[in-house]
Design brief:
One of its GO terms (molecular function) is proton-translocating NAD(P)+ transhydrogenase activity. It holds the Pfam family PNTB. Keywords: Cell inner membrane, Cell membrane, Membrane, NAD, NADP, Translocase, Transmembrane, Transmembrane helix. The protein has about 475 residues and is an alpha/beta fold. It is about 60% helix and about 5% strand. The strands form two sheets. Strands 5-4-3-6-7-8 form a six-stranded parallel sheet. It has a two-stranded antiparallel sheet with strand order 1-2. Mean pLDDT is about 85; it is low at about 285-300.
């Protein structure tokens, strides 16, 4: 009866994951979808704690289980409540790394369990110790989980500035050799004569996978980080699915497959949005050599500034304004005052919309989440293809902290690292106002030709302060 009820609970949890994921596809239902999936996971966790049994023995170490749940829940709640929107990508990366670590530890614990049991029974034959498919799943979970954990921690450090881009001559060859060593160690691990001989290769494999995860992410720079985060997320999903196989846990298997598939599809879509292959992203070190492919500001020509009052007049008397949000908007926490500006312009009869680039910000959907936080209507968010059609008939484009995703060099300069990457073609608008703190290059370390465009005016300063001044000026017009 307990097993039957547990199976129903796992089925219910799996359904909530699928339905919740579907609801996440639209901002109006995303919050409910997240809560639904969380409820399904909660039911599955408590069902496992109280109903799971193996060989007639149920779980009994409740003090450790609930102690761990309490620590994790409190830590997660505090982190989620305190995190700033600008730090959201690094938190996502860190939490994803914790998922990879869990998958790795599951494989380590399962392997050690096999070793201890068969050492005690003096039956060291590997084939007698564990079915071959089960054993392969342990190895796969250990390797993929280790890479995901180490890579996600490095990505977290790079996003918050603690770890800088690092590369050396021949690093890609070193990475390939390291990956080959992992496969070789796994091969020897797969066919040992007994469990005793498998122990050392197993831990060597885990160690090499952790090392590979570090060097895998270290050279990848700048604008490629959203792709890397998405890819690492898919790794964690696959590693979690391995855990589901090991324990014959349907809800864990379903969740892992959904995360792995969603992360893989998102990675492919972002690579398509950047007009680059995944291999190119992983070996290209895009943005890792800041300034190497960028011209100096002087060689691009001169730029012109615009005052707050002039910018306010341009926007107040425009027919159509498109706002392009970027990481600078997130850093300044200016999404709410940006929404206030939008409403004020609409009261004056101006049509206002937002142009969202697929890889703007530091993680997939960063700008969408940012604007949703300030209650910007989803109908006002235009994807890149739609926005590029609208720029030709737009009076004013206001670029708020976006840089690489509006750089015309992607279309005009074959020597640029971003050449061929689809960008928002804001230069087609009648007037372009770019808000930045300074003329420094963006996250990818590439000079932006847009800043020197004849129709571009620079509005320097913090995005929130600049928008507040714009709102004040427009109210007085």
């Amino acid at each position: 009866m307990g097993l039957s009820l547990l199976t129903v609970i796992y089925l219910l949890g799996s359904v909530t994951f699928i339905v919740g994921l579907k609801m996440l596809s639209h901002p109006e239902t995303a919050r409910k979808g997240n809560l639904l999936a969380a409820a399904g996971m909660t039911i599955a966790i408590f069902g496992t704690i109280f109903l799971y049994e193996e060989d007639g023995v149920k779980l009994h170490n409740y003090a450790w289980i609930f102690g761990g749940l309490a620590i994790g829940t409190i830590t997660g709640l505090m982190a989620a409540k305190k995190v700033k929107m600008t730090a959201m990508p690094e938190m996502v990366s860190l939490f994803n790394g914790m998922g990879g670590a869990c998958a790795m530890l599951i494989s380590v614990v399962e392997f050690d369990h096999i070793y201890q049991v068969h050492k005690a029974t003096e039956s060291m034959s590997l084939s007698a110790a564990v079915p071959f498919g089960h054993y392969l799943t342990i190895i796969a979970g250990a390797i993929i989980g280790s890479i995901s954990f180490a890579g996600s921690v490095v990505a977290w450090g790079k996003l918050n500035g603690r770890i800088k881009d690092f590369s050396f001559r021949g690093q890609h060859i070193f990475n390939l050799i390291l990956f080959a060593a992992i496969l070789m160690a796994a091969f020897f691990l797969t066919y040992p004569s007994d469990v005793q001989h498998a122990r050392m290769p197993f831990y060597i494999t885990v160690g090499l996978a952790l090392l590979y995860g570090i060097f895998f992410v270290l050279p990848i720079g700048g604008a490629d980080m959203p792709v890397v985060i998405s890819l690492l997320n898919s790794f964690t999903g696959v590693a979690a699915a391995c855990g589901g196989f090991l324990y014959n846990n349907q809800v864990m298997l379903t969740g892992g497959i959904l995360v792995g598939a969603a992360g893989t599809l998102l990675t492919i879509l972002m690579c398509k949005a950047m007009n680059r292959s995944l291999v190119n992203v992983l070996v290209g070190s895009f943005g890792g050599k800041a300034g190497a492919a960028s011209a100096s500001g002087g060689s691009q020509g001169s730029y012109k500034e615009i005052s707050i009052s002039d910018a306010a007049v341009c926007m107040a008397y425009a027919n159509k304004v498109i706002i392009v949000p970027g990481y600078g908007l997130a850093v300044a926490q200016a999404q709410h005052v940006c929404h206030e500006l939008e409403k004020l312009l609409e009261e004056k009869g101006v049509t206002v919309a937002y142009a969202i680039h697929p890889v703007a910000g530091r993680m997939p959907g960063h700008m969408n989440v940012l604007l949703a936080e300030s209650d910007v209507s989803y109908d006002k968010l235009m994807e890149m293809e739609q926005a590029n059609d609208e720029f030709k008939t737009t009076d004013v484009v206001l670029v708020l902290g976006a840089n690489d995703v509006v750089n015309p060099a992607a279309k005009t300069d074959p020597a640029s690292p971003i050449y061929g990457m689809p960008v928002l073609e804001v230069e087609q608008a009648k007037t372009i106002i770019v808000n930045k703190r300074s003329m420094k290059p963006g996250y990818a370390g590439i000079e932006n030709e847009l800043f020197f465009h004849p129709r571009t005016s620079m509005l320097f300063g913090d995005a929130k302060a600049a928008l507040q001044k714009l709102v004040t000026e427009i109210k007085n017009i």
